[in-house]
Write a structure and sequence with these properties.
Structural class: alpha/beta
CATH superfamily: Metallo-dependent phosphatases
Number of strands: 17
Shape: globular
Radius of gyration: 21 Å
Number of domains: 1
Low-confidence stretches: 43-68
Helix content: 10-25%
Strand content: 15-25%
Order of helices and strands: HHHEEHEHEHHEEEEHEHEEEEEEEE
Length: about 425
């Protein structure tokens, strides 16, 4: 397989993002390890041909190298940089949570519209890295001529102003030698959800820089995304983008003892209650950053409790946060007071992709397909393959295609909107395997 677009000259390397911590303090520490200038690139398609035992040994060596690099932070300059950034980013109030009050549209509902009866929507999660892979994914998304593009959250390492500029908005920051990477725009609009990494810098750059650059399109220009949540709606479908990031980071220090539950802000819950009568006949697609189901990681169930107290019907749900592609069997949530959830993890947009490991004890959900393929890369990393999801709405029909960084469609599924429910019409699987 070949990639039809050369990697960005001067893009960031996956190896600098391997094993990025969900601890704000450690993520800031790991940020100090990124070289001041891009490394020389090898062949982008250099294969990993090592047998499993050798590959595992290489993976352990990478882990040891990362641990050694982390210890380097305690050299005087890096340590001082880390302390300075930690104090600047982590201390102080979070950015105010923005709502639609006093704005237009006051209800936060936008039309879900396209051309010739078709609406094309590209989704990617954990894309904001500025890597070669993020660059390629953005290029492939643009080639689909999307009406909408939606990022499911996380700009790395901590979503501050410089990283947002370089890794999302495509703008060079002062003194950087890296080529900036821009999120692709849809012809009808582009939106971004809030992630935990944006909140490591208190959400300031997310609310003040990302949202003003996105939103519905008018005469080819984005008109600003007014809040970190939204509704895209037509006669058959409703796409709900919800903010699980705002409450995913706690008080510095205390958050390591009491884990934040990523619940929806109360203003968002009130908004959802207010629009519920307006979407009672549509089939629901939910977009969040944090997962509600997982066989590999913790699950964030508080968001589902809040949602399903209001919306009491089956949903199709996409999320990121975990850096992998995972397809889940429909989950019967009746024991938790939930309707059926058809869950999809698509957090493989730009980060090093985690290969499937052991399932987590006490996990929620049953995995159906995962991607076990090794990624051919010039950094000799033992990682999986990046990609995105392409949604095509056509009246009551929805086709979802999962496209990898090579441009190959590796799985296709079809759904039908039926009186507020979502009915699966089958899956065509090319190369994914059971967990």
């Amino acid at each position: 397989m070949t990639i039809d677009q050369a990697p960005a000259v001067g893009a960031k390397d996956l190896q600098d993002l391997k094993g990025v911590s969900r601890s704000p303090a450690v993520a800031l520490m790991q940020k100090q390890n990124v070289p001041d200038a891009p490394r020389p690139k090898g062949l982008a398609d250099a294969p990993i041909t090592s047998p499993p035992a050798v590959a595992q040994e290489a993976s352990l060596a990478q882990t040891a190298k990362a641990a050694f690099q982390a210890l380097r932070q305690f050299e005087t300059n890096d340590y001082l940089n880390w302390i300075t950034e930690y104090l600047r980013n982590r201390f102080g109030p979070r950015h105010d949570f923005q709502t639609y009050e006093g704005k237009q549209p006051a209800d936060g509902i936008y039309p879900l519209s396209g051309s010739d009866g078709e609406v094309r929507m590209s989704l990617a999660g954990d894309w904001g890295t500025g890597t070669d892979e993020a660059y390629r994914v953005a290029h492939l998304m643009s080639k689909t001529d999307p009406h909408y593009t939606i990022h499911l959250g996380d700009v790395y390492f901590v979503g501050d102003a410089v990283e947002v500029s370089e890794n999302f908005l495509g703008k060079a920051s002062g003194g950087s030698s890296y080529t900036p990477c821009q999120w692709p725009y849809g012809s009808q609009g582009s939106f971004a959800l809030n992630g935990n990494h944006e909140m490591y810098a208190r959400g300031i750059a997310y609310f003040d820089a990302i949202l003003p650059a996105l939103g519905p399109m008018l005469n080819g220009k984005p008109q600003k995304q007014l809040a970190s949540y939204f509704c895209l709606k037509n006669d058959a479908w409703c796409v709900l983008g919800l903010d699980t990031g705002y409450n995913s980071v706690g008080i510095p220090g205390l958050e390591y003892f009491v884990s934040p539950d990523a619940r929806l802000p109360e203003q968002l819950v009130s908004w959802l209650e207010s629009i519920a009568p307006k979407i009672e006949h549509q089939s629901i697609v939910i977009l969040t950053h944090h997962q509600v189901l997982s066989i590999y990681d913790d699950c964030f169930t508080q968001q589902a409790d809040q949602i399903f107290r209001i919306l009491k019907r089956p949903v199709l749900w996409f999320w990121g946060h975990e850096h992998r592609l995972a397809i889940y069997e429909p989950y019967d949530g009746s024991s938790r007071g939930w309707p059926a959830i058809t869950g999809r993890c698509i957090g493989h947009g730009g980060m090093p992709v985690d290969l499937p490991g052991k399932t987590k004890v006490g996990s929620i959900g049953k995995g159906q397909y995962v991607d076990r393929r090794l990624y051919k890369n010039d950094e000799q990393l033992h990682v999986g393959i990046n990609g995105f999801a392409q949604l095509t709405f056509n009246d009551s029909k929805l086709r979802v295609e999962y496209v990898d960084v090579y441009g190959q469609t590796i799985l296709t599924e079809r759904f039908t909107a039926k009186t507020g429910s979502v009915s699966s019409e089958g899956i065509q699987n090319v190369c994914l395997t059971p967990p």
